[in-house]
Design brief:
Elements lengths: L7 H8 L9 H17 L4 H17 L8 H17 L10 E6 L6 H14 L4 E5 L7 H12 L2 E3 L7 H11 L5 E5 L8 H14 L3 E7 L6 H12 L3 E5 L10 H8 L2 E6 L7 E3 L2 H9 L1
The protein binds guanosine-5'-diphosphate.
Organism: Halobacterium hubeiense
Subcellular location: Cytoplasm
Protein name: Signal recognition particle 54 kDa protein
Length: 290
Amino acid sequence: MVLDDLGSSLRGTLDKLRGKSRISEEDVDEIVKEIQRSLLQADVDVSLVMELSDSIEERALEEEPPGGTSARDHVLRIVYEELVDLVGESTEIPLENQTILLAGLQGSGKTTTAAKMAWWFSKKGLRPAVIQTDTFRPGAYDQAKQMTERAEVAFYGDPDEDDPVKIARDGLEATEDADVHIVDTAGRHALEDDLINEIEDIESAVEPDRSLLVLDAAIGQGAKDQAREFDDSIGIDGVAITKLDGTAKGGGALTAVDETGSTIAFLGSGETVQDIERFEPDSFISRLLG
Ligand code: GDP
């Protein structure tokens, strides 16, 4: 179980329960406090942390350990189940024909994630194409072109066209041989009407099978407004967290997951196309608590 891999102070606290068959309120209190500390440090929203703490406390004190289970293992199981419930399962990404739209603010890592995802799909045996509709950020076209060349996947962009919707339409046509279309969009420095109107128009034009919100791991509380705005405008099916190679643990993304009723799809941990993996609850939980 993932909790074998826990942060050392939490493991120490749990280990104090070894040999005990009953668990006291103080024991549970101490464990819950350790978990709260780690999760808050990892940028998980306070109200989510409180909900989780309440559930752990209630279950640890009320549920009888199944016969033969030690108090330690019983609490460990409850903590694990509640954490899995908090972070959710991985967003379903079928390996089949599809169009994926990426949304997010400027600098969140959309272009990088588009190329990484294309690389990931190509390693799964599909033929992806990246369509770059970001006409707002200077350099977005060149960046996407270079990264997709490195990933050895198809690319469409038009540096002379300033209508992103036209680029999206032309891109789908120009890359019709591809089976997975990843449509990168422009961000802005902040949530602006411009951004929302543009992404709504692109969404209508490409009719994506799924839309992913790209969030920097360091996002913290800002995740809530972004998630709500993008979810209201285009519907968010999953989250891609970037820059997990930094010090941030990405707990803020859970706010977005909660706000949109979605799940986490991909994790990015570097600037090259290979630095991507599918979200997997166990290792993410270890990271949050570590
Ligand atoms: P966009 O404006 O949303 O398209 O963001 P970009 O894809 O251009 O990324 C913004 C910056 O973050 C670039 O310098 C990227 O190289 C960097 N970046 C993106 N993802 C990651 C990551 O997972 N790790 C690190 N270290 N840098 C990243």
